[in-house]
């Protein structure tokens, strides 16, 4: 696969820093009570999201679970409107009705974040069915957590994708835990990709999910496979640096373990790679970092200044 | 008998602990019940105390949590299966409705199914449309299954112990925003067990009967305080169980107050109020001086934004308004 050029790498870097700063700000806003409900941070997993989205072809699709801010920003949703959604404002991407867990952008083929574990897997199958049905060359990348592979939805969706030959990349973001349950305590076969064999679909790779380039390459190949030959199951091995959601007491893992992983911060890794490859790129990176700070400040300001939803919003869109 | 003021969370923990100590066949399984200590910290410390044989973490697999509890119960164990929140019980609906509620009947009594499914209900926490349901009434539709909806620490303890000891399956619903509520509970009586299917008068009054449960107790209690300032005395009846449904005290109350308001967090369509209204008409029609009024959530999915979520939920003011409409 052709190595990405400098501009592409800088763009990936920009997106990853944007996600990181966005979520750090969200955590603060949560502490201040301005964001409510559940807030599941993607911090540590940015390479997976950015690697995936960068691999999508023009008409491909992506769908994910509730840990969805990274995907929303990576597909290019406006941070202002995403932040407004976080704050439950009328100008939010779901009009303030969805919140952190339910971001979506129809125009960008981002089919949303879903809060019921595994619930979106059959939706992915259905979106892929549309492509098959209409004989369109479109692939759906369906992201899910490791924990989601143990709910019945997983079994039924993968099997259906096999027998109907649906163009889906089933992509497990294996961050080691579903809430506090380690993968090997929840899965009889902790090497999740092996399950592909049982469904008669392609067993994809287990990639280093902290390496943006590796994710990009592997997902590009998986998309090519799905487009030609049907479903594939792959894993991105990653780690969430923060708790499952805000307020997680984190009794199930040690500080040492977390520290081991934060050393391999995907943003630091991409930064190091870019500086290695391109002399003088540090300047570009710093410019990006400053620009992101500004973007976030503007997003927060926009969100804070936006109006809250109204009674009419409450009762609208119950039916089409 | 010594009583102590404890929270609903403590009441639930102590009921579970006592019943596990009493009966070796009682065990707990569910998501995050062990290492995490329970999503709502109800089973905190249980893994250390009872070990991994009796405190079993499961994968995220609601179907098999509920379904295997049915099998284990048919075979003689007494599972307490935890479904993290009632929203996720929808995933397990078939096991609950088609098997948990029916194996006793379908095989003509050969099997009993002493399962307790513990779960949490309720909105108002900005969790959005899929995570904010209060759908316990749906489960009360089906014969063969009991539905417990305690609203105080006293009731939570006595009712959970009753549910565990009963030979029928019980969906035991706890309100996720009420776990810190306190009340006096007997603490030195390991056999403090309340009867299954008995409602309870939580506040006596003569002017209007408010029928409610769980979160509705709070809204109704606040409303009753406001009404009292105007000299209106509301009687509050806590259903405590949606099945068996005990409306005798309601009929009796209506004969005195001649007015009924039902307050609940469920959606309005086919809800508890609809059932209560129908039964009151059936049993006490001649005593009614006004149509039965219902206060419930609005007929919309609950949104994330706090201001409109609160608009959609009942509150004390809405209860006061409904009471004034029937007076
Ligand atoms: C059906 C269902 N059961 C339980 C939950 C509660 N829950 C939310 S996230 C989660 C853990 C999911 O873990 P994983 O799939 O690995 O995703 P991660 O959070 O690690 O991204 C659980 C149990 C839920 N949302 N839906
Ligand atoms: Mg996980």
Short description:
Chain A contains 13 helices and 8 strands.
How is the secondary structure organized here?
The complex is a heterodimer of chains A (320) and B (327).
Chain A (H helix, E strand, L loop, with lengths): L5 H26 L14 H10 L5 E5 L3 H6 L4 H8 L23 E5 L6 H13 L6 E6 L6 H12 L4 E7 L2 E2 L2 E2 H4 L8 H5 L2 E7 L3 H18 L2 E6 L17 H8 L3 H12 L3 H25 L5 H5 L5
Chain B lengths: L2 E5 H15 L3 E5 L15 H5 L4 E3 L4 H13 L3 E6 L2 H4 L3 H8 L2 H4 L9 E6 L14 H4 L6 E3 L4 H13 L4 E6 L6 E5 L13 E4 L4 E5 L2 H15 L4 E5 L2 E3 L4 H10 L2 E4 L8 H13 L8 E3 L10 H7 L3 H11 L1
The complex binds thiamine diphosphate and magnesium ion.
Thiamine diphosphate sits at the interface of chains A and B.
Describe this structure in words.
The complex is a heterodimer of chains A (320) and B (327). Chain A is of the alpha/beta class. Chain A has one domain (6-308): Rossmann fold (3-Layer(aba) Sandwich). Chain A has 13 helices and eight strands. In chain A, helix 4 (79-86) crosses helix 12. Chain B is 37% helix and 19% strand. Chain B has helices at 8-22, 46-50, 62-74, 86-89, 93-100, 103-106, 136-139, 153-165, 215-229, 248-257, 272-284, 306-312, 316-326; strands spanning 3-7, 26-30, 55-57, 78-83, 116-121, 146-148, 170-175, 182-186, 200-203, 208-212, 234-238, 241-243, 260-263, 293-295. In chain B, helix 3 (62-74) packs parallel to helix 5 (93-100) and helix 9 (215-229) crosses helix 13 (316-326). The longest helix of chain B has 15 residues, at 8-22. Chain B is globular. Chain B starts with a strand and ends with a helix. The mean pLDDT of chain B is 98. Chain A binds chain B through residues 36-38, 85, 88-89, 94, 96-102, 114-119, 147-148, 150-152, 178-181, 185-187, 249, 251-252, 308-311, 313-315, 318, and chain B through 31-32, 35-37, 39, 57, 59-63, 87-88, 91, 125-131, 298-301, 303-308, 311-312. The structure holds thiamine diphosphate and magnesium ion.
């Amino acid at each position: 696969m052709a190595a990405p050029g400098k501009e592409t790498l800088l763009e990936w870097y920009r997106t990853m820093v944007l996600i990181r700063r966005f979520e750090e700000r969200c955590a603060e806003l949560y502490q201040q009570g301005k964001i409510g409900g559940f807030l599941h941070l993607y911090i540590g997993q940015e390479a997976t999201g950015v690697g995936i989205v960068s691999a999508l072809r023009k008409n491909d699709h992506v769908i994910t679970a509730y840990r969805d801010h990274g995907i929303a920003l990576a597909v290019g949703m406006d941070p202002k409107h995403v932040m407004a959604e976080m704050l439950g404002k009328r100008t939010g991407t779901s009009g303030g009705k969805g919140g952190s867990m339910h971001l979506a952008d129809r125009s960008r083929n981002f089919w949303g974040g879903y809060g019921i574990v595994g619930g979106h897997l059959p939706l992915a199958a259905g979106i892929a069915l549309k492509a098959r049905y209409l004989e369109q060359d479109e692939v759906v990348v369906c992201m899910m957590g490791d924990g989601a592979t143990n709910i019945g939805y997983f079994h039924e969706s993968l099997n259906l994708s096999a027998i109907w030959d649906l163009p889906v990349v089933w992509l497990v973001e294996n961050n080691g835990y579903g809430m506090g349950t380690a993968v090997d305590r929840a899965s009889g076969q902790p090497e999740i990709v092996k399950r592909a064999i049982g469904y008669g679909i392609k067993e994809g790779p287990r990639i280093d999910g902290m390496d943006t380039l590796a994710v990009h390459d592997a997902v590009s190949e998986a998309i090519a496979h799905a487009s030609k030959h049907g479903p594939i199951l792959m894993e991105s091995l990653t780690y969430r640096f923060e708790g499952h959601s805000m307020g997680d007491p984190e009794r199930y893992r040690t500080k040492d373990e977390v520290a081991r992983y934060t050393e391999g911060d995907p943003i630091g890794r991409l930064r190091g790679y870019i500086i290695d490859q391109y002399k003088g790129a540090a300047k570009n990176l710093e410019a990006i970092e400053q620009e992101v700070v500004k973007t976030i400040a503007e997003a927060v300001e926009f969100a804070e200044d936006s109006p809250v939803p109204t009674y009419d919003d409450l009762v609208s869109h119950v039916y089409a | 008998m010594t009583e102590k003021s404890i929270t609903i969370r403590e009441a639930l923990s102590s009921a579970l602990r006592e019943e596990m100590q009493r009966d070796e066949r009682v065990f707990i399984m569910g998501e995050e019940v062990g290492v995490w200590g329970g999503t709502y910290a109800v089973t905190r410390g249980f893994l250390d105390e009872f070990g991994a044989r009796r405190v079993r973490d499961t994968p995220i697999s609601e179907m098999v949590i509920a379904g295997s509890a049915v099998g284990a119960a048919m075979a003689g164990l007494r599972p307490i299966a935890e479904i993290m929140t009632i929203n996720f019980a929808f995933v397990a609906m078939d096991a609950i409705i088609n098997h948990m509620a029916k194996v006793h009947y379908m095989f003509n009594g050969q099997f009993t199914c002493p399962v307790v499914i513990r779960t949490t209900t309720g909105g108002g926490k900005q969790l959005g449309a899929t995570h904010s349901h209060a759908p316990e009434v749906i489960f009360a539709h089906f014969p063969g299954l009991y539905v417990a909806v305690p609203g105080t620490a006293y009731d939570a303890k006595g009712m959970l112990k009753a549910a565990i000891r009963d030979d029928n399956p019980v969906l035991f619903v706890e309100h996720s925003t009420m776990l810190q509520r306190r009340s006096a509970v007997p603490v030195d009586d390991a056999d403090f067990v309340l009867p299954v299917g008995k409602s309870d008068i939580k506040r006596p009054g003569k002017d209007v009967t408010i029928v409610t449960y769980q979160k509705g107790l709070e809204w109704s209690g606040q409303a009753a305080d406001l009404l009292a300032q105007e000299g209106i005395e509301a009687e509050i009846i806590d259903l405590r169980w949606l099945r068996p449904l005990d409306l005798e005290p309601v009929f009796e109350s209506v004969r005195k107050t001649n007015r009924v308001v039902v307050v609940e967090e469920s959606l309005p369509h086919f809800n508890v109020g609809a059932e209560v209204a129908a039964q009151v008409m059936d049993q006490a029609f001649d005593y009614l001086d006004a149509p039965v009024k219902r206060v419930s959530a609005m007929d919309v999915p609950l949104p994330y934004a706090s201001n409109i979520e609160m608009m959609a939920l009942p509150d004390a003011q809405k209860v006061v308004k409904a009471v004034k409409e029937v007076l």
